[in-house]
Design a protein that fits this description.
Elements: E1 2-6, H1 16-33, E2 37-43, H2 62-73, E3 78-81, H3 92-97, E4 100-102, E5 106-110, E6 113-118, H4 128-137, H5 140-147, H6 151-169, H7 183-194, E7 200-203, E8 209-213, E9 219-223, E10 231-236, E11 239-244
Parallel strand pairs: 1-2, 2-3, 3-4, 6-7, 7-9
Antiparallel strand pairs: 1-10, 5-6, 8-9, 10-11
Length: 260
């Protein structure tokens, strides 16, 4: 049996047509993997925006939600990590499709290996502006205030700011400038020095498929995204690797050569 990892699909972005095309590709991937799937880990930013009101959730994504529920009904565990775009997932996915929902990185032992899995936003040195904003977004009182807005207003505002941020940053936030500038890689190194070491660090968020050995032990993987790379992680017999779906494989990292 095989455990699969995927992140950063950003369903809903940048428009309905592009999102539907990406969603159908994701479902084709699930169909190709389901026969030997032991578990599925969705490692953040499945949705470009998500906020759960008490009696309403954002419209759309019905194909994906239905398929994830089907996996759970077949006895395949679905582990869902919130990302910086869908950090307002609360209990809906657990109650509706049976997913286990995590808001922080979690340790797992899978196939005899120790893993630390998380989306990765706000970890490591730097990115102080986002860390401050995340404290605001995760404040329970401010979440309560936002929930008082009508969904048409609240979701409309959030989608506007998401598009504005994407237009401003473009692809600059996913440029690779060496491992010394990769905050998640630095976080993994510090974790190995100070915490209980793991074999594999599995993160998303960077929108880059990265593999890098850690001098202190273990290996760092970034899952890439489904906006450009269509990459995902596979763990079989205790070995982890990155693959790409319906597209040539491309890696970033100092320890491996790039492949087109």
């Amino acid at each position: 049996m095989t455990t699969y990892f995927i992140s950063d699909l950003h369903l809903g972005a940048p428009d309905l047509a592009a999102s539907h095309e990406r969603e159908r590709r994701f479902l084709r991937w699930l169909d190709a993997c389901v026969d030997d799937m032991e578990a599925l880990y969705v490692v953040g930013d499945l949705f470009d925006f998500w906020f759960e009101y008490k009696r309403a959730v954002p419209r759309g994504h019905v194909r994906t939600l239905g398929r994830l529920a089907e996996l759970h009904d077949r006895g395949i565990p679905v582990h869902f990590f919130t990302g910086n775009h869908d950090l307002w997932v609360f209990d809906y996915l657990k109650e509706e499709i049976g997913a286990e929902v995590y808001h922080q990185p979690q340790r797992f032992e899978i196939q005899g290996k120790k893993l630390l899995v998380g989306h990765g936003d706000g970890l490591g040195p730097g990115d102080h502006g986002y860390k401050f904003i995340k404290k605001i977004f995760t404040n329970r009182f401010l979440q309560w205030c936002f929930a008082r807005l009508h969904p048409n207003t609240g979701i409309g505002m959030a989608n506007y700011f998401s598009r504005s941020s994407r237009a401003k940053t473009g692809t600059s936030d996913s440029d690779f400038n060496g491992l010394e500038n990769e905050w998640l890689y630095q976080y993994a190194r510090d974790y190995q020095k100070e915490g209980e070491p793991v074999d594999y660090f599995i993160f998303g968020h960077r929108h880059l498929p990265i593999i890098a050995d850690i001098p202190e032990g273990g290996r760092y993987y970034n899952l890439g995204d489904w906006l450009k790379y269509f990459t995902y992680g596979v763990m079989h017999d205790g070995q982890f690797e990155l693959k790409a779906f319906e597209k040539p494989l491309f890696f970033v990292g100092s320890e491996i050569s790039q492949k087109e």
